[in-house]
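Lesson 9: reading folded outputs for more than one chain in a single document. The general rule is that every protein is listed as its sequence immediately followed by its structure tokens, and records are never interleaved. Here is the first one.
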Amino acid sequence: MSDSPKRNVKISVQIPPQHASYEQHRKAWIEADNLGVDVIFNWDHFYPLSGDADGLHFECWTQLASMAEVTERAQIGALVTCNSYRNPNLLADMARTVDHISGGRLVLGMGSGWAERDYMNYDYEFGTAASRLKDLARDMPIIRERWEKLNPGPVNGKIPILIGGGGEKVTLRIVAQHADTWHAWGDVETMTRKSAILEDWCVKVGRDPSEIERSTGLNAQTIDTAEDFVKAGVTHFTTAVSSADMDFGVAKELVQWRDAYNAG
């Protein structure tokens, strides 16, 4: 890791828009906000990713608009938005609008897409992993350029961008060029190695690596590794909340640890 100022630890929850009614989701967003998490995420899919494949499921960005209205403190966003599903100019406008509804609390989480069933059933061109990454690289500047043209623009002048993925040859280059937060999955060793590769990409594109927050996921089985991740430079942790029971137990533990760590 490069020398950089210490970042405070952040804790987020991902509440998938599946297997629960709108009212259950609304209650869960408010509970998460009151708990004191830093970000509340959903995801951008059209069908459940676990359990009944044809179970209850809601659309991401319509839900984010509601989340923006009923929460007050936490940032909100998708982990992540599929770049393929919306024209980049339209997505920029949607993000700007939700940003205003939330009072400037939106994080634009972006990814290249992978869920073939979504593509096939909604008549999107699935292409290849390489073509979807090429599209993401093409569209990120378009999104940022549209924000410059919109009236009004984003509440705080810009909307923070999170990019998810760990591909070392293409994805991390896109992260280096455009992201404020990089989110990836893996153990401490994997995140350490990929973070070093991200730093190399930052050098190549003329970016200060310390500008990019590192983020990963934790669950009940990996919560004890949080401090090892922090030593490796990862400071933002997301835990998923099951829509079946909306259990915030792990999130509560992580929020308590965050508060103690940041105060130390």
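And here is the second record, again sequence then tokens.
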Amino acid sequence: MAASLKTNFVGVSMENPYMLASAPPSATPEIVARAFEQGWGGAMMKTIQYTPRFTKKNVNPRINAVKDGNKILGFTNFEIGSPKSVESWAKGIEWLKQRFPERAVFVSLMHTDVLVEEEWKELTRIFDQAGCDGFELNLSCSHGQAESGCGAVLGADPEKIKMVTGWVVSQTKKPVVPKLTALTVDLPTRGRAAKEAGAAAISAINTMSSLPGIDLDTFRPINAVDGMSAFQGASGKLIKPIALRCVAQLAQATGLPISATGGCYTWKDAAEFIAAGAQTVQVCSAVMENGYRIIDSLNQGLLNYMENKGFETIEDFRGKTLQYITQQIQLNRDYRLYAQIDPEKCVACGKCVHSCADDGFGAMSIQNGKCVNDHEICDGCGLCSQICPAGAITMVRRA
């Protein structure tokens, strides 16, 4: 039987597990329609707030690329929620679902400068009637809204997570998916709080609060607005290891479906998130850099991988990695390795020699034009194998 990318996320059928994250790529129903035409499975729409008394403009510029040379590693931004009115969004959601009934459309909600129960409930009722498939609760924005006590500040408090999730759950039969922040010491407790309040799934993670850099001529932070700046949310490849950890933690702690977001650029990234427990994978930074067109390679790459592994559905390998994650203290201290150098590949650049001398045990040296490892001194830390530019070093188990 051929592999299929079809998935069911909290009762919502999807052609594939890829969703646009709540971000610039999902800023309006009109542009999301173009994404759906190109094959995206769903979208978490740009965050909507109760706007009658809350209207703020986005600043210019607000998006900054974090680079290593010319290679983009991710972005930082201090964009706020959608400036569009609730009424405009309601009409747009209705239009989008009528045009693409088979695509998953989740509305993302966030509160304004004050936490008002009726605002959350009213927004839920409005978009329930507009025909959305479910609700993502933005309890995790790391910039802008966090300054006024919402976003990540709200998502750090288990009681407030439970309270807000309960408000929304009380107004709809559609799935409610709190989006939690990595900016907390005990994420599993926050996940369990959401589950206790009736969350159908959890979305993780959001951007990470950051300062992308400093102009050393002017001493102004990078991404300055009229000479001033603010802390910004970091996204993209920069945060993928953190996102993977959070997805795995939440899957282990709650047993709920997870919608992963944070650093998915390729089908391989998506497969890793699924193996860590995710049922859907949201994409933002990769679309910002390369456009909606990446969906073809995302779909085909994941499909090829599944067929090569003999997986018929995503469920065949979802969460498969969780059984191999334990506490650090439980790892086997008797499992010992040493570095083995392939002389055919070694270019005697000396990187391993300097790193081992200054960061390890001084086991590496250059002899007769090749790097050599003293197995008796080698501690097996693995650093040399990770920095070798020629790929000449592998870690081998001691007899």
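What the second record shows: The chain has a mean pLDDT of 94.
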